[in-house]
């Protein structure tokens, strides 16, 4: 398996002493409790209270200021001492560095909300999902084949956390991606946004380029949500829809050939077989001037190990709740699918936003 030098250094060697490894094993065993205690330390305002009182507070003061019982404050604080989000000096609790990041890092906030509201209950059925190849955890919300059909029907707070997670990672990379798409080397008059969701990328495109026409290809439910989200924006008349289910292998891509076919955080929603099928149908609609841009957070191309950690664990959401058969891909797996679809990679651009890469693909010679 090919990894960046940073990941190779970490993932190829034992890093912990025996005592540290034993401690890590217990952290894993108590993981659900660690998560819920830490979430409540944020939600109930304890970490913020300590952030605003750097000299520290006693547990009695914390209980009084938060309105918690002394017992509730005590069990949360003592657990958090062991977790490492707070420190104690004499009888005064203080915020630790880890607690500061949990409170202030936007990525931590988004990930915590996503895991609590979307994933937590469904992960109980992870074993079933792995054995059956179906998103068995999704039944915690209702009966749907995948989460994508369910999105418009999920409780409002669940939708908020799901879209908050999705948009947080994609939005950070959009500005850089626009400059790559509309770099001036080729005229981009027509762009096909596959899996366009609520139309955030399409909106960015029509507002960035005053002449581009964007067609969103997605499920009918997503198209309806997109229409609602984009109806009052400048350039809405240049955003079009092509509702379909891309899991249906008979569904063809619209023609004539688009200048750009765009797939952002989309192919991670499908199995390798499905990715190959989708890319093959995209290739069939392309000509020699068309380019397919695949933007994904490939876990093996991350600069920092923390990002790889988040991505490989996000794969479990796809297993348990999203569809049962997809993941955050290693770039070589995606490259294999692209090649099997009759495409070749022209260039890979790394380092966009919070760790996105763009694969720029063209039809193989002889396939035009």
TrEMBL record:
Keywords: Methyltransferase, S-adenosyl-L-methionine, Transferase. InterPro entries: BVU_1015-like_N, COMT-like, COMT_C, SAM-dependent_MTases_sf, WH-like_DNA-bd_sf, WH_DNA-bd_sf. Residues 22-93 form the BVU-1015-like N-terminal dimerisation-like domain. GO terms for biological process: methylation. GO terms for molecular function: methyltransferase activity. Residues 182-342 form the O-methyltransferase C-terminal domain. It comes from the Bacteria. Gene3D superfamilies: 1.20.58.1390, Vaccinia Virus protein VP39 (3.40.50.150), Winged helix-like DNA-binding domain superfamily/Winged helix DNA-binding domain (1.10.10.10). CDD domains: AdoMet_MTases. This is Methyltransferase domain-containing protein. It comes from Phocaeicola faecium.
